Amino acid sequence: MELRHLRSFAVLAETLHFGHAAERLRLAQPALTQQIQKLEHELGVRLFDRGPRSVKLTPVGVEFLVEARKAIEQVERAVLVAARAQRGEAGRLEISYVSSSAYSGVLPQLLGAFEREAPDVSVGLTEADLEFQMGYLQEGRVDAALIRLPVGTLPAGLAATTLRKEAVIVCVRDDHRLAKPVVQAAELAGEPFLATHLREGYGFYDTALRVCRAAGFEPTIVSRSHQFSTIVSLVAAGRGVALVPEPVGRLTLPGVAFARLDDCPFTSDIAIAHRASGNAPATERFLALCERFAAA
């Protein structure tokens, strides 16, 4: 059954006049007649009663018209959805993220902007450890990943764009000798350190190592955690000191103080990682938004 035959049937059912229907369809009247006859033959039913001066729908034709209109509307809707998906206005986007990208403001800002720009794209969110995110991208489990650089060696076929550079600050107990506005990195030498769980070459742990080594010492790590909020809580408990990204300083936990590092050349960079090619239009639209965010 051809869609054009259904459309011809629906127009004729509305006009009940072969000449008028043919004109609306931009067909010759004999061609319209042939289409209706072919449709009736295919269905094995009579859809119209044809008189010398009138055309009427048969009872079967009345019932068939309801379903024919639904079918036409569904096809038109499918065409619209395909066009919108091609423009990145519909579809699904899967994003993984490291937890610190949420309270740094990057994740909520991107999600809010993308929802305003493409409200009909369904967005799935998964919090994921940095060391797993590159695999998720390669396997197609996610379309984009909010990460903290570095990520070791970026796997082939993946790309990353830096979205925001965040300063590195010091977190100490509020009665610690270093509870002051500005601290020299070298003053941290010999202190017990609390650090993230990652290994060298990955994420904020690598950045913290660089800060310490540039100041001439190797940090003595006494405890590790997946979450910066836990690290800050352990600092408040007197378990040690920590280096953290600047947005962590917004956490209002009692018993801690945050200090700026004097002349620190290192930053903790949040980036969006993605496949370098073969992305769906909705993903490309999101990545274009990320590019604008990075340039702002």
From the structure above, extract its key features.
296 residues; alpha/beta; Arc Repressor Mutant, subunit A; D-Maltodextrin-Binding Protein, domain 2; 3 domains; two-stranded antiparallel ribbon; 10 helices; 12 strands; 25% strand
Structurally, the number of domains stands at 3
The outline comes out as rod-shaped
Element order: H for helix, E for strand? HHHEEHEHHEHEEEEHEHEEEH
Specify the biggest β-sheet: 8 strands, mixed
Contiguous low-pLDDT stretches (5 residues minimum) are none
Describe the structure.
Helix 1 crosses helix 3. Strand 1 and strand 2 form a beta hairpin. The protein starts with a helix and ends with a helix. The strands form 3 sheets. Strands 3, 4, 5, 6, 7, 10, 11 and 12 form an 8-stranded mixed β-sheet that branches. The chain has a two-stranded antiparallel ribbon with strand order 1-2. A two-stranded parallel ribbon has the order 8-9. With 296 residues, the chain is α/β, with parallel strands linked by helices. Helix content is 43%, strand content 25%. The protein has 10 helices and 12 strands. The protein has 3 domains: 84 residues, Winged helix-like DNA-binding domain superfamily/Winged helix DNA-binding domain (Arc Repressor Mutant, subunit A); 98 residues, D-Maltodextrin-Binding Protein, domain 2 (3-Layer(aba) Sandwich), CATH 3.40.190; 104 residues, Periplasmic binding protein-like II (D-Maltodextrin-Binding Protein, domain 2, 3-Layer(aba) Sandwich).
